[in-house]
Amino acid sequence: MKSKLALFGGPKAVKSDVKDAFTWPIINKEMENKVLEILRAGKMSNLEVTKEFEEGFAKWHGMKYGLGHNNGTSALHSAFFGIGIGKGDEVICTAITYWASYLPVLSLGGTVVFADIEPDTLNIDPDDIEKRITKKTKAILVVHYCARPADMTRIMKIARKYNLKVIEDVSHAHGALYKGKIVGSFGDVSAFSCMSGKSFATGEAGMLLTNNREIYERAIVFGHYERHGDLTIPALKQGAWLPWGGYKYRMHQLSAVVGLVQLKKYKKEMAEIDKAMNYYWDQLEGLPGIKSLRVKKGSGSTMGGWYVPKGLYCKEELGGLSITRFAEAVTAEGFTMYTGANKGGFNHPLLNNVDVYKDGKPTRIANSNWDVRTNKGALPVAEGIQSKVFGAPYFKKYYPKVIKEHADAVRKVIENYKELLAGDKGDPKEMGGWGLSGIKAPSKKKK
After folding, report:
1. CA 365 to chain centre
2. What CATH architecture is 6-24+265-341+384-421?
3. What kind of architecture, by CATH, is found in domain 29-261?
4. Where in the chain is the domain with CATH 3.90.1150.10?
């Protein structure tokens, strides 16, 4: 017998105390003691602990060089400079990601060209990458979105074919494997955010990894003035008493020491998250209207720490029920379900109309010999994805009863979806978000 939906007065599916199922990051005594040691010694801005963390992080990924940054955005900025992005260079980027993945390109005089995403992974579509390549293309920016590894086999094949650099943004996928190899070790350079919400959390920090000495040293000269003594390339040592970017991007050692402790315990935590999240999706396997973004079992690929887990929604399988109405009903069952994903930057005024550096025309095309701005319909999957994606609970602990209740909430709504159709007002015109302060873009006033 079907249970009455909580939205209509029935009992909630989620009843148990969730305890610390969602608590993150997990702080232990060693972490606390190490942080206090740094504080009491007044060594927050020193380098010895940071260098130790860099070495450990690089070793974990099988990479030669690691360079700690104050956040993931600065690590990406340094990565773009490291590979030599400059005026007129085009970087092909996934259409759906956080703005920090691509905006640093603009300050270097480069041009962002968006490629569409795959509907079943939300990652950049290799076929669309190849369509976007021009004589000005210098690099491909890959984001392993929502912990799902991108198709690095095909992407690297394209990069080699056209002699392009590859930057991996691994901010969502710490520790994830693609066909048995850890992500962040495929491209020419990779960048990671390690802020407190990420699966590998150190507080507020970023990391750059590369096997290329020139990229590493260019990243140093760009924003790490206190490390110019480490430079070995003559052309970079020249005039290197000041940072070439004018930036101060070093990681503070409170984050570095937290990172060292995380390196000891993250694999165990990652395994528990993986067990919990797979158990959740196992409960929902085969139900109409929804599908997990997880990788196939036995593929050699993994989801790492499962950062911001999401599911795919197909309203046609549920009588046309909007995702907004679906999420409303699930939320009533005891778990707040969010809809949508990062809003495509190709729609934002900054990437279309704003002249940031007073070039006399929009910054996006200031140094381009053609208008790279995206026309409506050019990115069909990305443009329609917001009504097809929902957030799943992000379990950090394997508590079967709690997990099952959250899965039951979704199952209950699916089993009773016909009751929701009558009051369905559809989806709002604008869905998803840019990860900003919540300020809405000004509306156009009628003359």
Report:
1. 25
2. Alpha-Beta Complex (3.90)
3. 3-Layer(aba) Sandwich (3.40)
4. 6-24+265-341+384-421
DSSP E strand boundaries for 52-210? 65-69, 90-94, 111-115, 137-143, 165-169, 177-178, 181-182, 189-193, 206-210
Strand order across the 111-115 sheet: 65-69, 206-210, 189-193, 165-169, 137-143, 90-94, 111-115
Indicate yes or no: pTM above 0.70. Answer: yes
Question: Tokens 């690929």 map to which residue?
Answer: 301
Q: What confidence tens digit (pLDDT) does each residue in 72-114 have? A: 999 999 999 999 999 999 999 999 999 999 999 999 999 999 9
Determine the Cα–Cα distance for residues 436 and 98; give it in Å rounded to an integer.
10
Helix (H) or strand (E) holding 311: strand 310-313
Which token pair is 308?
A: 């911001």
Every domain range in the chain assigned CATH 3.40.640.10? 29-261
Q: Report the alpha-carbon distance of residue 141 to residue 49 in Å, rounded.
A: 30
